[in-house]
Design a protein that fits this description.
Strand order of the largest sheet: 1-5-4-3-2
Number of helices: 5
Shape: elongated
Strand content: 5-15%
Oligomer: single chain
Largest sheet: 5 strands, mixed
Radius of gyration: 22 Å
Amino acid sequence: MAPNTEKEFTLDEVAKHDKQDDCWLIIGNDNTGGPKVFDVTSYLDDHPGGAEVMLDVSGKDADEFFEDIGHSNDAREELKKYQIGVLKLSEEEKAKRKAAAEEAAAKAAGGSTNMIMIIILIVAIALGYYKTQMA
């Protein structure tokens, strides 16, 4: 029987499932189809990184942690087996998540801008040095 992936859960409901014998995670964002709820209790012992890393984020939004690790496509396929629903967000929560995503994107873009400025500065210094040596 296929899991009920359309059932909606609130953050408060998910937060109650934060123990080794009852471990739920929220994983997903606007880029991956939205936040989904997973019951990974039966997977804890099989997780290659160990149960502890999952228990640290149990009952919470673990999307950033999941994405930062760089899970393989196989891991993402395995995760789908444990989906039990989707996260129900209020308009306020949606706005908060959108703002956080935009802030993260701005920080990521800002880092590349700084790198470009440093490269331009190094090229300018090297060019200036070259000109003084040729005179």
